[in-house]
């Protein structure tokens, strides 16, 4: 094991940082080149200190959990790779209806959390067993990654001639993006973005037994108390449907608003 020497202003946790690891050692796909600095944090304070140190010194930083869903380059990472090693489930509240409110650190293994929830009788996330990764990444990575790709793809879909015209008009990068590129990109991003928002709305039911008492959680509570399953979940379905239609209607209005400029030639 090779331990690196850090500057005097570096946080204490970096004293145990390693320089002999590669991304292939910490990712589930077992690919990736060498890591400049690798450190494991065991508390929130240590994690914050490392991030603040990297920001203050303009050092690239990569925070990893279980190492899944990471396709690393062979060139490696010339910066600090931080792995959150915190674990443990803090039970804030448990009721008799098969639910509860718990606090789980981001570094806790997701599958271990699901297994414990099944053992404790916390219903709702048992279907998510077997997903690799950590609690901090699993609930947000799929939605967040897809949303980022939607926006990135929309920006890249803008005709290159638009960029060239902006350069010819001597527009600043900020003005070019705000006045020309972004309005056109939003038109391309709204349709898939609408689907993403509706999917996010449906996925809110997953948080019912993690930290929040959402609609699905309250519906399960009422079902346990009254045994009126059809009526209660039927009403919940109607509420979700109405919310989804509201999202759809708002996004349609936004699309029409932006498309008016395109019709007049402002976005052509």
Please provide a written account of the structure.
By secondary structure, the chain is mainly alpha-helical. The protein is built from seven helices and five strands; from the N terminus they run βαββββαααααα. A three-stranded parallel β-sheet has the order 1-3-2, with helices on one face. A two-stranded antiparallel sheet has the order 4-5. Helix 3 packs antiparallel against helix 5. The C terminus is likely disordered.
- Which series of helices and strands comes N to C? EHEEEEHHHHHH
| Intertermini distance | 59 Å
- Classify the helix fraction into a percent range: 40-55%
Query: How would the global form be characterised?
Result: flat
Secondary-structure-based class equals mainly alpha
Sheet with most strands: strand arrangement: 1-3-2
Radius of gyration: 24 Å
Flag low-confidence runs: 206-213, 263-268
Mean pLDDT: 78
In what range is the share of β-strand residues? 5-15%
Number of DSSP strand runs: 5
Largest sheet: 3 strands, parallel
- Total DSSP helices: 7
